[in-house]
Amino acid sequence: MDNTKKKYVYWEWRTIIILAVGYALYYFVRKNLSVAIPAMEQELGISKVQLGVFLTMNSIIYGFSRFANGILVDRFSQKKIMALGLFLTSIVNLLICFSPKLNGMLNLLDAEGKATMGLVYLIGSLWVLNGYIQGMGVPPCTSLLAHWVKPSELATKQSIWNASHTFGAGLVVALCGFLLQHFGYSAWYLCFAVPACISLVGVPLIWFGLKDDPSEVGLPPVEAMGENAVKAETEGVSHKVVDGEKYKKIINKMVFRNPYIWIIAVSNFCIYVIRLTILDWGASFLTEIKGLDIAKAGSLLATTEIVGGTMGMLLAGWLSDKIFKSKAHRTCFFCTVFATLSFFLFWKTESITLSFVFLVLSSFFIYGPQALLGTSASQQATKHATGTANGIVGIFGYASSVVTGVMFGAQAEAGGWDSVFPIAIAFGVVGAIAIGLMWNAPADGYEKLNKVMNEE
């Protein structure tokens, strides 16, 4: 291996590792609320419907933020946007932690120590703000990966990065479960304070450890490093220097008028219904319908995320590149089918052991499309528009929180969790049908990009 390839391999893996650690820390200050929910219900008297509103508004704002920041990272510094977002989201979590301390000024607690509507609105507003800031995390990651990883290896290596979702969510669930078990539900605020302090460590790591483009360290475009590099006119050009008219043309043809991007987006909406149901309400339905205590529920959810989710997305990425010749959408079809089936079996079984097995399998298969639908969007849009394409896919994914947040919160209170599962499973079926329509799509959009750029 010559010096250029050695240097490329070093920077490629340095980028993947830092992005994985950095985004795992984003999850520390994002999925902590799901474990704190039972404690906040008991200690503050906040209802499932109110908490569902928090979750819904947070996710909707998050989806739009991913779109807005996706446009920004296609034109500006990815690492700076990501580092700033991690800093701000950590600060918001610290504000939530200390919000009851403002009781003397704002009348946030009643005589029994329960939350007044003032505290509900304050925490809710901060969590909605957190949703926007969290949208500064994924777009820089997908853009940087498209600039540092060869298209033929993107599914495998983006899946490795995507393991940060499961490690981040799993570790923070286990951490918060331990804190509540050890200190009691009255210490719910620790679920925000401790993860926030840990996450702040990642800010300088991202800012100083990443480079936005191979040219910054004297390397050629990543496509030139492959033996079968795609011969597209624009591939050797950094997205930071594509002129305005050419950039608009790329965005229009490769994203907004690309039917594959919209198919991916619809499928993402459906699979996220199941994913967010587990992430946002997992601690609640495990304690309420499966009879587990909060510590065991937290440990179970951590296992499903770290073990099931990580193994699932890594295998899915490998299958996409090695078996399906980088056609990630084909892997997504099979994963969506089996994720839906596993979630159905989790609902129907009464055995705690089998419930554990099927929940792990649900995460195992869910994280295939969760990781690869974004990869597929990057492949179809090419590296020049990956931020915008993933922004649209993100809007659809987190718009599903309208279903999983307010709707499922109200449905669970009115008819119990058995009335929620059939709806989630129906969305999984629709998602499988949607992505199945894309079966014959090419592995990536670089050939189309070349034609677009040659149009008069």
The CATH superfamily appears as MFS general substrate transporter like domains
Number of helices, counting only DSSP H or I runs of 4 residues or more: 19
CATH top level assignment: Mainly Alpha
Instruction: Provide the domain count.
Output: 1
CATH-level-2 architecture: Up-down Bundle
Could you name the ranges where pLDDT drops below 50 across 5 or more consecutive residues?
Answer: 227-239
Number of strands: 0
Arithmetic mean of pLDDT: 83
Question: Sheet with the most strands?
Answer: none
Helix content: over 70%
Give the key terms.
mainly alpha; Growth Hormone, Chain: A; 75% helix
Structure, explained:
The chain contains 19 helices and no strands. The protein has 456 residues and is mostly helical. The chain has a single domain, classed as MFS general substrate transporter like domains (Growth Hormone, Chain: A, Up-down Bundle). α8 packs across α15, α12 packs across α16 and α14 packs antiparallel against α18. About 3% of the residues have low confidence.
